[in-house]
Design goal:
Layout: H1 7-21, H2 36-46, E1 51-53, E2 56-59, E3 63-64, E4 70-76, E5 86-93, E6 100-105, E7 114-119, E8 125-133, E9 138-147
Amino acid sequence: MNKPNSRRNFLVAAGGLAAGIALPATVAAQMPGAPAATQEAIRRMVGTARINKGKVTLDLPALVDNGNAVSLAVRVDSPMTESEYVKAIHLFTEKNPQPDVASFHLGPRAGRASIATRIRLADSQAVIAICEMSDGSFWSGSANTVVTLAACLEEI
């Protein structure tokens, strides 16, 4: 028997609504409403370089039950040759106590510009991936997720 006002029905509806209407967030450093800590973490990583949208695909579940171990994968459109390759992929979050989550360093011998990992998420938020190319350019992608049971609740 399905109760019309059950918590599960509400969460399914909220997750579907968020996934259906929420567009991936733009790079936090270029969003006036983004948290200052996230903007500062990105600024420390890229300096004054321009961050372009594109080339980066972030696969993140639209709805997760528990923020303690959220799987994600990042792929970057790059030929991974000696002259053109991904040097690093950096992950940032908007609402975690520490916004700079991880950095992965690659080289032309990596073969593919992709990583997969699990991260902790403090709340429903956007996760931002920024890749640094061998020519010094930066590219970004992001994805939003709804977290029903938060992680990272400790204060700094």
